[in-house]
Design goal:
The chain is about 35% helix and about 20% strand. The protein is α/β, with parallel strands linked by helices. It is globular. The protein binds NADPH dihydro-nicotinamide-adenine-dinucleotide phosphate and guanosine-5'-diphosphate-rhamnose.
Length: about 375
């Protein structure tokens, strides 16, 4: 039985990856940091009582800023594969917490790599580093691929740039099996509520149900190559099963404006949105509502731009070329954006229902 260690196991990707590896028969160890309230919702369905026999999923308290903790957990678990998913992953927040972001996302990766070396596990342990399309930042070339130059545009992306190169350096210097997955945006019903897709799908559900009036967003012009997290964790695993370690772009190859994502999400509930104005004056109004289950009046303003959500430096356009992953890893996404939006909106409606805010099982088509 192979053993995997996942940092950031209770995040969006950690949850999908843990599920995938358990399905594949792995022993899965996950690192989560201590929180004042329990925040394991995404992995509660995988939980196994540690007192039982043959437990294949275990959680360990840890933090990417604590070297001795990481060394001890790796020593105890002796993983064949480490997936380094833990990070302060919010681009806008990284402008508020740049030093912490550098520490957790940049130096945290170094700590893991050094832990493997200190423990003499260079030959045994393979490592996946969660690199990002944010590395491309200011557009140099489209579509972006493995050879496209980087130009990071946030403290988050700069920290991830360090993590990218230290991973490459340890691979070359110490012959370690270390890979960067340069993943473009990937979403799901498990996406954190402050990332734009989930913020939109939650608000669309709440507005349709009469629980919220207006959705305030930042830059509606930004274009992202959005995929489904479930497809992307499969690519992470495939990267660690090759004969030689390499870096791979994972993307759908299709880019969409934030504004269009808003239209699609409302569209799922039969609500048509018309945008008027420009820049911070831009507003979205209900042009028509042809779903009798939702009483959203035509002409009502449901979207507004709030400059507080703008970033000091923005990444305007991301579109990835995943030809290398398709060819060498045999990776293909199963979801398209339409399927993703539908799943997210439906899931948010069900969440409001579970929370007892409304009763409308019959409303979802
Ligand atoms: P999430 O924000 O959902 O999850 C991040 C995880 O990291 C959480 O479990 C979080 O714990 C944990 N974490 C944060 N800081 C620390 C720390 N100092 N020590 C230990 N754990 C920590 O991110 P995603 O699942 O979406 O992304 C996974 C990784 O992939 C991240 O590194 C992200 O930067 C990267 N990435 C994501 C993409 C995406 O579109 N989703 C695209 C490309 C890269 P807690 O719950 O306590 O906050
Ligand atoms: P991103 O994701 O910055 O691409 O990073 P996010 O969903 O936060 O933003 C995408 C785009 O939408 C614009 N936007 C808004 N964003 C947020 N969060 N909130 C808003 O109200 C809003 N309005 C407009 C943003 O300006 C941006 O252009 C994600 C994270 O998962 C990173 O960890 C990961 O590395 C990259 O994707 C790939």
């Amino acid at each position: 039985m192979k053993t995997a260690l996942i940092t950031g196991v209770n995040g969006q990707d950690g949850a999908y990856l843990a599920e995938l590896l358990l399905e594949k028969g792995y022993m899965v160890h996950g690192i989560k940091r201590r929180s004042s309230l329990i925040n394991t919702d995404r992995i509660d369905h995988l939980y196994q009582d540690p007192h039982e026999k043959n437990v294949r999923f275990r959680l360990h308290y840890g933090d990417m800023t604590d070297s001795t903790n990481l060394i001890r957990i790796i020593q105890e678990t002796q993983p064949d594969e480490i997936y380094n998913l833990a990070a302060m992953s919010h681009v806008k927040v990284s402008f508020d917490t740049p030093e912490y972001t550098a520490n957790a996302d940049g130096i945290g990766t170094l700590r893991l790599l050094e832990a493997i070396r200190i423990l003499g596990l260079e030959k045994k342990t393979r490592i996946y580093q969660a690199s990002t399309s944010e590395l491309y930042g200011l557009v140099q070339e489209v579509p972006q691929k493995e050879t496209t130059p980087f130009y990071p545009r946030s403290p988050y992306a700069v920290a991830k740039l360090y993590a990218y190169w230290i991973t490459v350096n340890y691979r070359e210097a110490y012959n370690m099996y270390a890979c960067n997955g340069i993943l473009f945006n990937h979403e799901s019903p498990l996406r954190g509520e402050t990332f734009v897709t989930r913020k939109i799908t939650r608000a669309v559900a709440a507005i349709a149900l009469g629980l919220q009036d207006c959705l305030f967003l930042g830059n509606l012009n930004a274009q992202r190559d959005w995929g489904h997290a479930k497809d992307y964790v499969e690519a992470m695993w495939r990267m660690l099963q090759q004969d030689t370690p390499e870096d791979f772009v994972i993307a759908t190859g299709i880019t969409t404006e934030v504004r269009e994502f808003v239209r699609m999400a409302f569209g799922e509930l039969g609500i048509e949105i018309e945008f008027r104005g420009e820049g911070v004056e831009e507003r979205g109004y209900v042009a028509a509502c042809n779903n009798e289950n939702f009483q959203v009046e035509t002409g009502k303003q449901v979207v507004a731009v709030d400059a507080n959500y703008f970033r000091p430096t923005e990444v305007e356009l991301l579109i990835g070329d995943a030809t290398k992953a398709r060819t060498k890893l045999g990776w293909e996404p199963k979801y398209d954006l339409g399927m993703l939006v539908k799943e997210m909106v439906e899931s948010d409606i069900i969440e409001f229902e579970k929370a007892g805010k409304v009763q409308f099982e019959h409303l979802i088509s």
